[in-house]
Design brief:
Largest sheet: none
Structural class: mainly alpha
Radius of gyration: 27 Å
Order of helices and strands: HH
Number of domains: 2
Distance between the termini: 49 Å
Strand content: under 5%
Number of strands: 0
Helix content: 55-70%
Length: 107
């Protein structure tokens, strides 16, 4: 989710020990864990409320579906890949040095 590696976690831990001290660091870690749990519970509650208000058509709705980037990726780009894979090629292929036909009315 956050794409944090082992070195980043170690740096965060060392900075936390330096800033907060080894005595208060466990309490702050517990508070941070509680806050993350409450945020997750709040997000799940909001998602459940949204599903119940929108009706059975949106039973599989996720909050991540409301992100504009994921909507574009899902509806535009995935559809584009499907269209390109199902597109049929014209049976009339040009010879290697043959010029394509020119339509003056089309330009």
């Amino acid at each position: 989710m956050f794409d944090v590696g082992i070195w980043e976690i170690l740096v965060i831990g060392v900075v936390g020990i330096i800033v907060f001290g080894p005595d208060r660091l466990p309490e702050y870690a517990r508070q941070a864990g509680r806050m993350v749990r409450q945020l997750r519970k709040f997000a799940q509650s909001a998602q459940d409320d949204l599903r119940s208000e929108l009706g059975p058509e949106f039973a599989d709705l996720k909050l991540s579906d409301l992100d504009p980037r994921s909507m574009i990726r899902k509806h535009v780009l995935d559809g584009l890949d499907d269209d390109l894979s199902t597109a049929t090629r014209s049976p009339e292929l040009l010879a290697p040095h043959e010029r394509p036909p020119f339509d003056a009315e089309a330009t």
